[in-house]
């Protein structure tokens, strides 16, 4: 055996014809499963959006107090507020269930998207005559984050099936 062909394995040099027998078979490629942390990240994103509904969403007037996103009058802030509650509950269910849950991930993605869009619309259309605070952007970013993670979960589950 020449120096170029010698492969050291556990202190012994082997040639290419014996190397397979010493190392064994190559491991089979198993389909990738969605990471366990992904549903938790969806829960974190929607939880942050839910926590943001406790803060003031405007600088004065309606929505300027505690629970600023919650009001009796119809506003865009109700979309992320209700969506964050529903999404957080579904995300807790998703975290507790093991294995792929593609339909639940799709539903969580839709809810997270609604949270993000509703928060952005509330920032652009606050109640008259108030000004929006930065809190709707926190909810929008948290909803967008949860949406991206949910889409990633769905794509990974589809890849592992096919």
Summarize the topology.
Elements: E1 7-9, E2 12-14, H1 16-23, H2 37-52, H3 78-96, H4 102-124, H5 135-161
Antiparallel strand pairs: 1-2
Portion in helices: 55-70%
Which segments are poorly predicted (pLDDT under 50) over 5 or more consecutive residues?
Answer: none
> What value does the average pLDDT take?
89
Question: Counting H and I runs of at least 4 residues, what is the number of helices?
Answer: 5
Question: What would a concise description of this structure say?
Answer:
With 162 residues, the protein is mainly alpha-helical. The protein is 57% helix and 4% strand.
Attribute tags:
162 residues, two-stranded antiparallel sheet, elongated, 4% strand, mainly alpha
Textual characterization of the structure:
It is a single chain. The chain is mainly alpha-helical. Helices cover 57% and strands 4% of the residues. It has 5 helices and 2 strands; from the N terminus they run ββααααα. Strands 1-2 form a two-stranded antiparallel sheet. α2 (37-52) runs parallel beside α4. The longest helix is centred in the C-terminal third of the chain and has 27 residues, at 135-161. The two termini are 44 Å apart. The model has no long low-confidence stretch (mean pLDDT 89).
């Amino acid at each position: 055996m020449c120096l170029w062909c010698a492969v050291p394995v556990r202190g012994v040099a082997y040639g290419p014809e014996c190397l397979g027998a010493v190392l064994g078979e190559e491991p089979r490629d198993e389909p990738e499963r969605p990471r366990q942390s992904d549903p938790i990240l969806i829960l974190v994103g929607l939880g942050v959006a839910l926590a943001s509904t406790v803060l003031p969403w405007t600088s004065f007037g309606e929505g300027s107090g505690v629970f600023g996103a919650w009001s009796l009058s119809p506003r865009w802030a109700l979309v992320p507020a209700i969506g964050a509650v529903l999404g957080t509950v579904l995300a807790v269910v998703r975290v507790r269930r093991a294995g792929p849950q593609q339909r639940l991930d799709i539903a969580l993605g839709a809810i997270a998207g609604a949270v993000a869009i509703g928060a952005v619309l509330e920032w652009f259309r606050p109640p008259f005559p108030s000004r929006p605070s930065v809190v709707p952007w926190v909810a929008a970013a948290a909803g967008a984050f949860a949406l991206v993670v949910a889409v990633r979960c769905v794509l990974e589950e589809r890849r592992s099936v096919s």
